[in-house]
Amino acid sequence: xxxxxxxxxxxxxxxxxxxxxxxxxxxxxxxxxxxxxxxxxxxxxxxxxxxxxxxxxxxxxxxxxxxxxxxxxxxxxxxxxxxxxxxxxxxxxxxxxxxxxxxxxxxxxxxxxxxxxxxxxxxxxxxxxxxxxxxxxxxxxxxxxxxxxxxxxxxxxxxxxxxxxxxxxxxxxxxxxxxxxxxxxxxxxxxxxxxxxxxxxxxxxxxxxxxxxxxxxxxxxxxxxxxxxxxxxxxxxxxxxxxxxxxxxxxxxxxxxxxxxxxxxxxxxxxxxxxxxxxxxxxxxxxxxxxxxxxxxxxxxxxxxxxxxxxxxxxxxxxxxxxxxxxxxxxx
Amino acid sequence: xxxxxxxxxxxxxxxxxxxxxxxxxxxxxxxxxxxxxxxxxxxxxxxxxxxxxxxxxxxxxxxxxxxxxxxxxxxxxxxxxxxxxxxxxxxxxxxxxxxxxxxxxxxxxxxxxxxxxxxxxxxxxxxxxxxxxxxxxxxxxxxxxxxxxxxxxxxxxxxxxxxxxxxxxxxxxxxxxxxxxxxxxxxxxxxxxxxxxxxxxxxxxxxxxxxxxxxxxxxxxxxxxxxxxxxxxxxxxxxxxxxxxxxxxxxxxxxxxxxxxxxxxxxxxxxxxxxxxxxxxxxxxxxxxxxxxxxxxxxxxxxxxxxxxxxxxxxxxxxxxxxxxxxxxxxxxxx
Lengths: 332, 335
Fold this sequence. Notes:
- The complex is a heterodimer of chains A (332) and B (335).
- Helices cover 34% and strands 23% of the residues of chain A.
- Chain A is an alpha/beta fold.
- With 335 residues, chain B is of the alpha/beta class.
- In chain B, the strands form three sheets. Chain B has a six-stranded mixed β-sheet with strand order 6-7-8-3-9-10, sandwiched between helices.
- The longest helix of chain B has 18 residues, at 190-207.
C-alpha cells in the first residue's frame, strides 16, 4: 500500500450502496461525496434511513455482503482506493488508520471478555505485543479516556461499567493504534445529556491532541452546532447540502436543511408552533422520481417532480447544495 | 383551588431488593420515587425532566395507577385514587390516561388499529354504547390526523409517527381531562417529532386537556410546558415556571443539566459556560445521605451530607429549590 501523504486524508467519491433483499433493491446510498482533512470534524447529519450509517460502514468496509453491495464509487485514504484493496490489506487500514465507534457500546463490546483483554487484542494482533505488555498499554489507554482507577478496572467486564464508561472503553479501543481518521456513529445518542457533554468533550480533546479527522454521524443538530467544522446533510442516500457549520445554520441553502432547523424546539427560547415537514422520508426501495425531497418540499414545482436537481450546485467556495431553487431558499 | 385537576402529595415508590431463593428476605429497596409533591391545573402542561434513573417514568406509572405507590396521596379531580375501589375507581381512572414512549412495543401487533383504539370501550362499556363505537374510533382517527379508512390495518403498516398518533387516539378514547405523556416523542425522528408535538398542542387547545409531559429532552420540554419540575434520584429538586427554570435556574443540578444541552447555534460555541458534572448518577438503592446531589455538586459543603435540603423558596431563589445554597444563575442572555 503506497499512501500518498500529499493526498487528502479521506475522500469519498460518488459512492453507491444497495441492499438486495427479497422485497426488492433498497438504494441506501446514491452518490455520496465527502472529503475530510486532518483535524477536521465533519458531521454527517440526517434522519434514520437517510444512509448515514451505511456510508460509514462502507468506508470501514464492514457491510455484510450480501445483502449489501457497493456498486460504484471510491473511498480514497491518502490516495489509495480502499474498495479495491484485498481484504488482508484492508484489515491493515482498519484500526491502524481508520477506526470507528458505535452508538450502543454494550452490544459493540464482547460481553465474555474483560475490557482489558479486548483493548489488548489490538496490540497483540496488529503489533505483536505480549499479553502483559498489551495489558499495560490497555491500562494507559483507559487512563487517557479518564476511566477512574484504570489499573483495577482493566479486568472488569463491559456489563460492570455504566453507559458513559462503556463509551469511553470503546473510544479507548478505537484510538489504541493511533488512527488518523475516527468515525463516530451516533456516539452519544443513548446517553444522558450530562454524560453526552463529558463524552463529546473527551472526543474533542483527543482529536486536538492527535490532529485526527473525525466523521461524526448524528441526527442531533445541537451536537453538530457545538463541534462540527463542516456539515454534510443527507436525505434519501444523497448529500443534499455540504457547507461550513456557520453558513448552514445562518443561511441554509437546501429546503430540507431549512425545514429541519425550523422544526426543532429550542432550549434558548420558547417558540410558538413548530414548523412541520409534512409526510415521511421515502422508502429506500421506492425513492421518488426527480428530487427525492419534492413530495415534502415547500418550494417544489413541476421541474422538481421530473428532473433530479444538479448534484452539486456550487454556491460559494466550500459550499454546495442540491436543489433547483437554491436562490429562493437562500432568499437572494 | 377548584381548577387543580391532579394533586400528588408525598408519593413514594420503593422496589424491594430480595435475597435468598428459598427464604426470601428483604435486603433493601430501590428508592425510585422518594417523596414527590405535585399539582396540575386545568389546561396546563407540567413538564418533568431528569436523566435516566431519576424516577420520572415510575412517577408517571403511579399517576395513572399502573404502579401502586408505597405511600403518599393522589387525587384526580378530588377523587382519592389510592382509596377508591371497584367500579368507582374504574370510573375515576377514565379521567387520567397515558401515552407511552415506544410506539413500536406499546401497540399489540395482532390487533387492528380499530381494536386497539376501541379497547378502552370494552373495559368501560358505558362510555360509548356498542353501536356507536366504530363511529367513535373513526372520529378519533380523524382527530389525530390519521385516515379513518385505515381502521382495519395493523400497527406494522404504519410509520413510527403514525403509531404514536394511534397511541394518542387510544389515550383520548375515554375523553380524559389529563394525559400523562411519558417520552412521547423521543423514539421519533426530528422531522416527525414536530408533527406529534404540534398535534399534542392542538388537542390541548381543542379539548382543554392538562398534560404531565415527561421527557429527557430539555428543549422539547421547554417548548411545550408551562411549569417544570426537575427530578434527581427520585426527588424533585427544583420547580417553577418555564422562564424560572430555563432562564433563572437556582439548583446546581438544573444549572449543570441546562449547560450540558447543546444549542443548535454555532455562534454560541465557546460563549456558553459549560458546567461539567463528574461521574455518574449514584444508585437509587443506596442514595447519598443528606442532599442526594452532593456527590457531584461543586457547591457541596460538609453540611450537605447531614442536612437534606427541602424544596422551598429561599432567599436567593424566587421559586422552590432543594439546595442549601440555591442562587439564581441568569441564563437568559447566556445561551
